[in-house]
Amino acid sequence: MMQVKVGARSSALSRKQVEEVMGDLGVDYVAKWTVTRGDRDKVSSLRPMDKTDFFTREVDERVLKGECDVGIHSAKDLPEPLPEGLKVFALTKGVSSGDSLVMRKGERFEILKRGALIGSSSKRRDRVVVGLRPDLRCVEVRGTIEERLEALDRGDVDGLVVADAALIRLGLTGLNRMELPGKSAPLQGKLAVVGREGNLEMESLFRKVDARKNRKALYLGLSPKHFQKEVTHLPLIEIIPRSFDRFDICSAFADIPEYTHIIFTSKSGVEVFFACLKEKGYSVEDLKGKEILAIGKVTAKYLEEQGAEVTKIAETETQEGMIHLLNLEDLKKAYVFLPQSSRARCALVQSLILRGVRHQRCDLYDTVHRQIHVKPDLHPFDEIIFTSPSTVDAFEKVFGRAPKG
To answer: Which of 1, 200, 273, 372 has its C-alpha lying 20 to 30 A from 315's C-alpha?
Structure first.
């Protein structure tokens, strides 16, 4: 009889999640409980992390090594991108995606004292709470659900924001709580099953609990992410670095010691920048003391993997998001470097010009259309995912207009 080796975190909530998935399958399994960095480190703030592997790395490593057949995670904890060699085998239908504010017995939200402390772990949750009661203070509380509830009982905080899914799975829905309005985190309440690419036996097995199977998407960007649906990857663009011996590139990189700010707009830009940096005789050490700014968390994560210390992230993943971030900065004495694509929009540069900020734009690479020999039929897809203006242009050249609906 088949016995599936399942990797997961060792918390009580994670154990319930494994029971939920494996109970639906009805197969024999053995759980490999794992303590992750996120379980050990209860000091670091979760607010700037978002789609990192803080809670998943050690489990995923066991899957990649073959110690486990699959790993089961809270879907909202999945890193972007997934580690190379892994694939999402299933995203479950899940339970409630909402959040609740848990309070001590007998207390009510409307009569909490002014300045009461509300335990939270995300800016999104903070905004919801403060939107309802601007006089409340949100503070970060780390630990398991049980440890956070103990902090509430001790009086360390006066309220605690907890995902409804956690309360449901742990049988704690009877606590004194108030459901919070607003959008929840993407994929909250759902569970993800990850396994090694090419493990068709496991992929086939967990397809039974995969809630994505009824929706199909065509993804046109460079690196497919995990979605709540079946994704077909059709990259329509590719990145071609320009010669690093070009005069404009040599001139721009000669000023590396002088730049005060370097702005990265994409993962591709980071990759080509560091290749050029190395060729010009510099290293990541030469970036210390500079403001390193990134558009989006994926770009920021890739910068950190290169050893750079990211100082600010534009969470709105557009040039406009970076412009808004820079509007809060004093740039009178700044010298800003913009390594980017030759096809990059000019909004960011124009903003710097209007403010009179000294800057250097450097077109490090070209984004070109890939040759597509066989065009897929678009009608079976429920949606088409574009990742940039370049993918829109490439799509129109290959397909013309998208089919209606």
So the answer is: 273
Distance CA 226, CA 89 (A): 10
What is the CATH classification number for the domain harbouring 341? 3.40.50.10090
Q: Which residue has the tokens 């803080």?
A: 54
Cβ–Cβ under 8 Å, residues 93 and 24: no
Q: CB–CB of 139/117 below 8 Å?
A: yes
Token pair for 164: 């409804």
pTM listed for this prediction: 0.59
Number of domains in the chain: 3
13: how many CB neighbours lie within 10 A of its CB?
18
| Same domain (yes/no): 360, 318 | yes
Helix (H) or strand (E) holding 237: strand 237-241
- Per-residue pLDDT of 60-90, as tens digits, reads 999 999 999 999 999 988 888 889 999 999 9
**Biggest CA pair distance of the chain:** 71
Residues 195 and 303 in one domain: no
Q: Are 22 and 205 in contact (CB under 8 A)?
A: no
Alpha helices in 242-328 (DSSP H): 247-254, 267-279, 297-305, 319-326
